[in-house]
Automatic annotation (TrEMBL):
InterPro entries to which the protein is assigned, alphabetical: GntR_C (IPR011711), TF_FadR/GntR_C (IPR008920), Tscrpt_reg_HTH_GntR (IPR000524), WH-like_DNA-bd_sf (IPR036388), WH_DNA-bd_sf (IPR036390)
Keywords for the protein's UniProt record, in alphabetical order: DNA-binding, Transcription, Transcription regulation
Record protein name field: GntR family transcriptional regulator
Pfam families: FCD, GntR
Residue span, HTH gntR-type domain: 14-81
Entry GO MF terms: DNA binding; DNA-binding transcription factor activity
Native source species: Microvirga vignae
Domain of life where this protein originates: Bacteria
Length: 231
């Protein structure tokens, strides 16, 4: 049976919105659209010669990636991409999180491991489906479940805040640097080490995992901003 017209129309919108998102993403990452820049749907629709629907879908995609923030009355605003902020967030995480894991891992229960495996399965599914908005949420939950038994409430609260602050950076790192498969693999290895009681190895891997994510995102942004400056 041939596809219906609504399905064809929906596919066309997704194709157009993907093309619009790709071009807007390039301009933001390359620094053509700087932080605070307002992305007006009408102007973008006119520039690209499309309706507002695929533009709106593209902006929603970029919000899921952390590149823009959609405000009720101001519309879509380009988020700030600061290499200094990236360095600070990921350095703090790499210092604090292995300490929490060392204290918490020996106390993880069967129920905890069941939930951690469920998160990994869902994470893998969302990666295949390219549901970027879920990547950061699942990443945060995975890490917090690992640390929940540390009995260090102040450190745990700080890390929870850092994970929230770095959520958009995590989504950017995964989507822009093609780090999805590496993240999934390292999460699985991290869980395996904890299951086997190899806590020191798990803490070392966690530190490397966090530092690697921060460095790959920083390098990506620096390279693209350098290319943009040379144009």
């Amino acid at each position: 049976m041939p596809p219906s017209r609504p399905a064809q129309k929906s596919l066309q919108h997704r194709t157009i919105s993907s093309a619009v998102a790709e071009e807007l993403r390039r301009r933001i990452v390359d620094g053509e659209f700087r932080s605070g820049f307002q992305l007006r749907q009408d102007a973008l629709a006119a520039e690209f010669g499309v309706s507002r629907i695929p533009v709106r879908e593209a902006l929603m995609q970029l919000e899921a990636e952390g590149l823009v923030k959609i405000h009720p009355h101001r519309g879509a605003i380009v988020s700030e991409l600061s290499t200094e902020e990236i360095d600070e967030l990921f350095e703090l995480r790499a210092w604090l999180e292995p300490r929490l894991l060392k204290a918490s891992a020996p106390r993880l229960t069967e129920a905890d491991y069941k939930r951690l495996n469920e998160i990994l399965q869902e994470y893998s599914s969302e990666l295949r489906a390219m549901h970027i908005s879920r990547w950061g949420e699942l990443n945060t939950e995975f890490h917090m479940v690992l640390y929940q038994h540390a009995k260090q409430p102040r450190s745990l609260a700080i890390v929870a805040n850092l994970l929230q602050e770095s959520d958009r950076h995590t989504r950017l790192q995964l989507s822009l640097t093609q780090g999805m498969e590496r993240a999934a693999s390292e999460h699985a290895e991290l869980l395996k080490l904890c299951t086997e009681g190899r806590i020191s190895a798990a803490c070392s891997l966690l530190k490397t995992h966090i530092e690697g994510a921060g460095k790959s995102l920083r390098s990506y942004l620096e390279e693209h901003q350098k290319v943009s400056a040379q144009k």
